[in-house]
Design goal:
mainly alpha; 13 helices; 75% helix; 0% strand; elongated
């Protein structure tokens, strides 16, 4: 075979295209469909809750009616669903190849570690953004029909905050996963970490006395109830939070690339 007849060596663009294809998991859409359907089920169940439970949600979280409660459920549901989908997809980046003993083959390619991570993470992030947007649109439609109208601009801004913060959290967990070599341990840590954004919310539910004389901190930290309680502040908050989440994700990917390079150097 002559030099001109030989097939060209796979390029970085070919590798990125392959990773983009692998990022389209067949089980993503059934999960999204189930998540959307849960909004309808939740909207039907909320009126059946005992009156004391409804009063507690109003008094502690500021969720005064069915619309507010359903919006709260949408924000927390999309955040958690996107986060878990992302964490399971992240297993293909490091932990899975380590378990399969194929990582050395992947990293033997003439590719910078940051390019390897970008090729893996970019399609995952794009896919998660698409799935999250579809979930939010489907859930919002059901909420509008079953629970009543709500401010659209505030909802779009709050949705941007939810999606951006979830994606940034996934990027941070990618860095954390580089310190683990078993899927079980990685997912266990991811589950524990998922509780962190809701610590303030949990305190507001069960220990509201913690926030006495700290109302400003309470209103800032009780995510995502604060997105429902203060809809007029959502556009300004989105203008601050979304770029900040993007910066956090970029830094997390850069640190992950350095971590991979150090692992390589250590042999």
């Amino acid at each position: 075979m002559s030099e001109t007849d030989r097939p060209a060596a796979p390029s970085l663009a070919d590798y990125r295209a392959l990773e983009a294809e692998l990022a389209a998991r067949p089980w993503h859409w059934p999960v999204v469909a189930l998540a959307i359907a849960m909004t309808a089920i939740f909207a039907l169940l909320v009126p059946l809750l005992p009156e004391p439970a409804l009063r507690m949600m109003d008094r502690r979280l500021g969720l005064a009616d069915l619309t507010a409660i359903v919006l709260f459920d949408i924000y927390i549901g999309v955040f958690v669903t996107v986060y878990y989908l992302g964490c399971f997809d992240l297993l293909r980046v490091w932990v899975g190849p380590v378990e399969a003993r194929s990582l050395s083959l992947l990293l033997a390619k003439p590719i910078r570690r940051v390019d390897y991570l970008r090729a893996k993470l970019a399609p995952i992030a794009t896919r998660l953004a698409l799935l999250g947007t579809v979930m939010l649109a489907g859930k919002a439609t059901l909420a509008w029909l079953m629970a009543g109208a709500f401010p659209v601009v505030a909802f779009v801004a709050a949705s941007a905050i939810v999606l951006a913060s979830s994606l940034a959290f996934v990027a941070v967990m990618n860095l954390v996963f580089l310190f683990f070599r078993e899927s079980y341990a990685a997912i266990l840590v991811a589950t524990a970490a998922m509780m962190a954004p809701f610590i303030a919310l949990t305190l507001q539910l069960y220990r509201p006395d913690v926030w006495v004389d700290r109302e400003g901190a309470r209103d800032l930290l009780t995510f995502p109830a604060n997105l429902v309680r203060f809809p007029d502040a959502a556009p300004l908050a989105a203008a601050i939070v979304v770029p900040a989440c993007g910066a956090i994700a970029i830094v997390a990917v850069a640190l992950a690339a350095r971590r991979l390079e150090r692992i390589d150097a250590a042999g």
